[in-house]
Design brief:
single chain, about 400 residues, alpha/beta, Rossmann fold, 2 domains, eight-stranded mixed β-sheet, 12 helices, about 40% helix
Length: about 400
């Protein structure tokens, strides 16, 4: 079976949560058939083909072309949407013209729309995050006519979903909202994939990690710093707050670096030592979509995660809120939960052990693969039925 996999990043890259999901999806597909990957890039100089691994970075959109202008306008007003006048057969599959693809698999709705992926082969779409949810929580309040644009995003999304032979989504509570006959929950899973024995730390460090170019990440951490951290540091002067992530906007770099006790680490390729030396992690996320892989990653490393209810969406029925996850939505709640974790060592150890055990039980690659197979097999069955109906 041949898959054309369209993704925004190299599937071998695991340096953030979104890339990890891409990596695991790629791994699951390679266990089923042959995967040909296309990564859209926006400059000819970035084009590259790895023939051995069948991974191509392909420039579809020329600078100052019609598509370039349209997408620049969309990015200004509706950043969730991408558009291309052609896409489809003969463009995204142009590197492998002699290959007959059984399915196109796309990461994210906007890339499926951009590629018109359903025109190449039956489309299996990893929605991951609902575009409407992302728009509502990140952009709605900052856009004139936001409610109208939100309806447009919903209609655009549903159009793409209806073109798909199968859908995956990261939040189980949203599966029924899709009104699609072949939609399934595909859990986010994290690295490491086996329990990493990380002994309890005696270092007085708390830790946050995320792509700091992404507004929900840096705005959430900024809230924690301004409303919680300074009170914590007054109470525990020996406590330090480590923040890892690349591309933090300059204004936040300047303001955070001036605050006592904060250490900006930049991009950290191997996070093991950071988890090893921290008491617990903090994920104060109040916007965005999907489920936060950084939450599961923390628990997999035997570290409790103090996070917002928003960051724990999709995990409500797992029991993790009683095993390693501590939920908070106000500055006062974050403060009191943090104090409890710092001062009550025995409870912290108990929660982090229970959390790691649950993550290993519920969020593992085998379960991820089962959901891939489930949607694929149902899509194959539906396509066979359609072909039989046509033959009658």
């Amino acid at each position: 079976m041949n898959f054309l996999f369209i993704a925004p990043s190299d599937p071998r890259n695991t340096d953030n949560g979104g890339n990890q999901r891409t990596h695991f999806l790629y791994q699951a597909l390679t266990n089923i058939g042959t995967v040909y990957t296309v990564i859209p890039v926006f400059a000819k100089s970035l084009e590259h083909i790895d023939e051995e691994n069948k991974i191509a970075m392909l420039c579809i959109e020329k600078r100052y072309s019609t598509a370039w202008f349209v997408n620049h306008c969309l990015n200004r007003f509706i950043p969730i949407i991408l558009w291309h006048p052609y896409g489809g057969l003969g463009y995204f599959d142009s590197i492998w013209k002699n290959v007959k693809f059984d399915f196109t698999v796309c990461r994210y709705t906007k890339w499926a729309a951009y590629a018109k992926a359903w025109k190449i082969a039956p489309l299996l779409l990893d929605i991951d995050d609902l575009p409407e949810e992302a728009y509502k929580t990140i952009y709605l309040k900052r856009r004139i006519g936001g409610a109208l644009i939100c309806k447009l995003v919903r209609k655009w999304s549903n159009y793409i979903f209806n073109k798909s032979a199968g859908l995956w989504i990261a939040n189980p509570s949203q599966v029924l909202n899709l009104s699609h006959k072949n939609a399934s929950f595909l859990p986010n899973i994290s690295l490491p994939q086996t329990q990493t024995e990380t002994s309890d730390s005696s270092d007085r460090i708390i830790f946050s990690v995320g792509c700091l170019a992404y507004p929900p990440n840096y705005l959430g951490i900024d809230f924690f710093i301004n409303h919680v951290w300074q009170h914590l540091h007054e109470r525990f002067p020996d406590l330090t707050y480590h923040i890892a992530g690349k591309d933090l906007p300059e204004q936040y770099q300047k303001s955070w670096s001036r605050i006592p006790g904060i250490k900006l680490l930049g991009f950290v390729r191997d996070l093991h030592d950071e988890y090893k030396h921290c008491l617990f992690t903090v994920a104060p996320i109040f916007a965005g979509s999907g489920t936060c892989i950084k939450v599961l990653e923390s628990l997999a490393y035997h570290r409790c995660c103090l996070c917002s209810t928003f960051a724990a969406r999709g995990l409500e029925s797992t029991g993790l809120d009683h095993a390693g996850l501590l939920l908070a939505d106000t500055a006062e709640q974050f403060y009191h939960q943090a104090v409890e974790l710092i001062e009550n060592e025995s409870r912290r150890k108990e929660l982090q052990t229970r959390g790691a055990d649950l993550v290993e039980k519920l969020f593992h690659f085998q379960k991820f693969k089962e959901q891939i197979h489930k949607v694929l097999e149902k899509a194959q069955f539906s396509l066979r039925q359609e072909n039989n109906d046509e033959d009658v």
